Amino acid sequence: MHLDNAVNKSTNPRPGQVYNWPDGPDVYKGIPKHYTGQEVNPTNVLAVLRGDQSLKHRGKKVLESGPLDNIFVYLMTHGGPQVLAFPYGGYLFAKDIIATFKDMYANRRYRQLVIHVEACESGSMFQNIMPPDIGVYAVASSQPTQMSRVAGYDSKLMDFTAGYFAITWLNHTEDRHRELLDDQFDYIRSQTAKDYYDPYTGLKWHQNAGHYGNLSIGRLDIGQFEGPKPYKIATGGDSDHHNDDEHRETVSMRDVQVVVAEKRLLLAVSTSDKLRAIDQLKHQLLGRQLVNKLFEQFAGVVGQLLSTTTTTMTTGLDSQLLVDQELVSNCYELFVNTFQSKCFNMNKNPYVLGKLNVFVNICEHLTARQLAIALNQLVGQCETTNAIVGH
Asked: Which fold has domain 271-388?
């Protein structure tokens, strides 16, 4: 599954090719196109894992595994508290992918399953949720309240080419197929936990990988899940290439659009290029300003409804909704889907995903009657702040 939208993009300096590190080799040739474009959505992801026969009858590939098979899954996208965002088809919620794993386990669709997820707050997809007894070993690129980073800035492409987590485990996998998953996790954690200084706040933070589920699977060889033979990952460098001075920079996945706009402004030579870069940067920053204002106002309105403070709603980040808290989990999903459909397409600006903790906190305080009122207030708030649409 891949969007397949980069190979012929106008900004691609190497048309017809895709590379995952500056000056790296082409990794596009021979890549299957089972699901591309709008087919890459949460519904299809879960259907493929379940081996959905209706997809198969339409000529699409699905997982046809049995009780002796090991499965490896890798997902990279933007994320928020217990949710992964897709460019098409909405969002993949933690409770849905966990339910799919439970169904697969009950129907003996695998022996063991390993999943790597690279997204901001990806640990929230599994922490306190993933059962230890369904044969799943999950590795998340960051803790439940942490952002994940990208790396490999390419000055020709004027964009970042790789996820920091992905480039770390992919390069470690080279010629290490007989090492243990635990060994790889320790390496990933040691590399991604290096200090990162936020250019906007000046604060230091870390990206700490986490592992969840049946941790005993970590004592198995990597090759049992990622292939039995040593092979070369086409990343254009050795396992420590992401520490080279030229490509050392890493930024939060949510800040990529702003950082890229800033770089374009700094590199612009002509007046027209500078004005264009200023417009792009202004567009991003005004969008963030509007998002901040919308959530602050909404938190204030709901705070009055609940007789609590705006600070209670907007701080004290807690993305640890438990699956057995069915009402709270359903409430959160309602808010996310309502915001997406009535207010703002979060896929256009992943910065918004960092505000979803407001919905988490609100849902932990609402009664069923108050939920309907709060949802109506959210829609009304968006209508009065309609300038946010398109930012």
From this structure: Topoisomerase I; Chain A, domain 4 (1.10.132)
